[in-house]
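Annex B.
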Amino acid sequence: MAINPRGSDLKRYLQEDPGGPVVMLNLLRFAEDGRASYEQYARALEETFLPRYGAEVLYAGDGSTSLVAEHGQDWDAVLLVRYPSRQAFSKMVADPEYQEVTALRTAALTEAVLQATVPWT
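DUF1330 domain-containing protein: predicted structure tokens.
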């Protein structure tokens, strides 16, 4: 399973841009002892990269009781991150400094979902 967006995924993400801000849904499943690595990544994200690109964490929390999920479909953590535009997110992941710290995220996770959301009108 992919942990990080690939070039073709980012290209499609930008092509399908409806304009305006985007909230990214992050579903995370940690590797054994991966939480500490992810926390290092999250600190760098919040201290440096989100402010640099005008983004903010709207919600971050641990997964809890699954009410509707098959065995193994629950997630360790959920994040919602708002970016001012899809381009801002794309610029962030292309930032050489960001690419240095994203290895922490990659090492921390065994599975992830990173999905752009579109608000209901």
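The two ends are 32 Å apart (CA to CA). Helices lie at 7-15, 34-52, 86-94, 96-108. Further annotation is deferred to the next reporting cycle.
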